[in-house]
């Protein structure tokens, strides 16, 4: 991989231990994947922020790195293991809190923003074609597929190395030739709300690391695409998908327009898909039936973190109602502070709007069944939190929270 003279100086340790380590990581990745050079990034998003995942070894590494390293570009952080204001309500062990704050301090010392969220795209101005270095699978797939930017599936450590150097190895999804869809997924029935997360969860495991092209019955909203991508990236390792209307399946111009917008190599349609998958309404309904008989004692909405439009809808559904169960609505502190009036109205119902964290990355315990509206949370909570989890629509989750 070609390195500039300055890159080489960094690699030789002339710019300090932290930068040398970061450059070593990028060079190793670049060599494994056959990158030709390092290219500049607009910003970075770093995962691996929860002490639950990092442990003491990760914390020590971050502390050492923070002694002589600063990020060179705008860098944001994924959720940590607790809400900094409401950790007591979450029943988090004070020892865990202490360690988590040390992790956060190390990141802050390096210049990383402490708005801890998995939806950094609500804070940043991302334009089509922007080169990013993002970790957090749901954010990666959103950046590539909805925002039409370009990022590889970075790990927490590679995104942090890129943030320190301000560059990333040029390979994979950054190259046009690797952005061509190679599997089609057709759904011929209308879907809404959490159906999208379930569609992602169901197809991610079939698609694995391929690039699906969804032919859908109607145009999804951005929130729908967020849930579709999060589900896909949780059961598979999808980093990019395309979508268009079912009715446009044979409309050459429309399909080509979609491919061009996402920075795909100029391709004549029809593309040769390796495989074609059909999903039915019945396939989605089967997932809703799982654990439906169990009463939930925890309701979670906001995986990935809620957008403003999702919060507005929750507010409407909760108006003049009182919740009778623990109800966590996760969003970023940026959105919570900016839309205080909506948050106050939601919390008047007794639901808690939680920031900085989510149930999956926090050491949440003590619940017998959770109900969620997200395909990703439905997939992860039973394994990461050992909490049996069922899925319903947003409205069903809210209705469940009203029953004692
Ligand atoms: Fe975000 Fe946690 Fe879900 S990090 S995507 S809310 S698992």
What features would you describe in this structure?
This protein is an alpha/beta fold and 404 residues long. Helix content is 41%, strand content 13%. It has 15 helices and 14 strands. Strand 6, helix 7 and strand 7 form a beta-alpha-beta unit. Helix 3 runs parallel beside helix 4 and helix 5 packs across helix 8. The longest helix has 18 residues. The mean pLDDT is 95. The structure holds FE3-S4 cluster (F3S). The site of FE3-S4 cluster has 15 residues, from helix 14.
Strand order of the largest sheet: 12-11-10-13-14
For the CA atoms, what is the radius of gyration?
Answer: 21 Å
Instruction: State the low-pLDDT regions, or none.
Output: none
The total beta strand count reads: 14
Q: How far apart are the termini?
A: 61 Å
Task: Tell me which ligands are bound.
Answer: FE3-S4 cluster
| Mean pLDDT over all positions | 95
Summarize, please.
By secondary structure, the chain is of the alpha/beta class. The protein contains 15 helices and 14 strands. A 5-stranded parallel β-sheet has the order 12-11-10-13-14, sandwiched between helices.
Keywords:
alpha/beta; 14 strands; binds FE3-S4 cluster
Task: Break the fold down into its secondary structure elements and pairings.
Layout: H1 5-11, H2 17-33, E1 38-40, E2 43-46, H3 51-68, E3 74-77, H4 94-109, E4 132-134, H5 137-145, H6 156-165, E5 167-169, E6 183-187, H7 195-207, E7 212-216, H8 222-235, E8 242-245, H9 252-261, E9 275-279, H10 281-289, E10 298-301, H11 308-318, E11 326-330, H12 333-338, H13 340-347, E12 352-354, E13 370-372, H14 375-385, E14 389-391, H15 394-401
Parallel strand pairs: 2-3, 2-4, 6-7, 6-9, 7-8, 10-11, 10-13, 11-12, 13-14
Antiparallel strand pairs: 1-5
Helix pairs in contact: 2-6, 3-4, 5-8, 7-8, 8-14, 11-13
């Amino acid at each position: 991989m070609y390195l500039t003279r300055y890159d080489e100086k960094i690699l030789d340790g002339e710019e300090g231990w932290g930068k040398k380590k970061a450059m070593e990581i990028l060079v190793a990745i670049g060599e494994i994947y056959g990158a030709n050079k390092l290219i500049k990034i607009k910003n970075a998003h770093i995962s691996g922020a929860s002490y639950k995942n990092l442990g003491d070894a990760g914390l020590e590494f971050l502390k050492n790195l923070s002694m002589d390293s600063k990020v060179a570009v705008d860098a944001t952080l994924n959720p940590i293991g607790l809400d900094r204001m409401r950790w007591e309500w979450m029943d988090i062990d004070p020892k865990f809190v202490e360690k988590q704050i040390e992790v956060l301090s190390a990141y802050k010392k390096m210049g990383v923003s402490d708005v801890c969220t998995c939806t950094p795209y609500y804070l940043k101005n991302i334009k089509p074609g922007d080169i990013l270095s993002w970790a957090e699978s749901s954010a990666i797939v959103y950046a590539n597929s909805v925002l039409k930017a370009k990022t590889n599936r970075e790990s927490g450590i590679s995104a942090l190395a890129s943030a320190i150097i301000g560059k990333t190895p040029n390979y994979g999804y950054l190259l046009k030739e690797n952005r061509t869809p190679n599997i089609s997924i057709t759904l011929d029935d209308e879907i809404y709300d959490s159906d999208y997360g379930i569609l992602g969860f169901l197809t991610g495991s079939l698609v694995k690391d391929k690039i699906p092209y969804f032919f859908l019955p109607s145009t999804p909203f951005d929130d729908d695409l967020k849930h579709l991508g999060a589900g896909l990236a949780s059961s598979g390792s999808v980093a990019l998908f395309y979508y268009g209307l079912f009715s446009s399946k044979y409309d050459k111009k429309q399909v080509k327009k979609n491919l061009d917008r996402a920075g795909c190599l100029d391709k004549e349609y029809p593309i040769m898909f390796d495989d074609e998958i059909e999903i039915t309404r019945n396939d989605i309904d089967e997932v809703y039936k799982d654990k439906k008989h169990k009463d939930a004692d925890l309701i979670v909405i906001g995986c990935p973190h809620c957008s403003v439009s999702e919060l507005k809808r929750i507010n409407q559904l909760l108006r003049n109602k009182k919740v009778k169960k623990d109800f966590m609505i996760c969003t970023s502190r940026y959105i919570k502070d900016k839309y205080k009036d909506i948050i106050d109205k939601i919390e008047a119902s007794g639901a808690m709007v939680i920031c900085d964290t989510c149930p999956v990355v926090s050491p949440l315990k003590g619940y017998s069944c959770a109900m969620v509206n997200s395909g990703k949370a439905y997939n992860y909570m039973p394994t990461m939190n050992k909490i049996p989890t069922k899925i319903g629509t947003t409205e069903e989750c809210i209705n469940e929270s009203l029953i004692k």
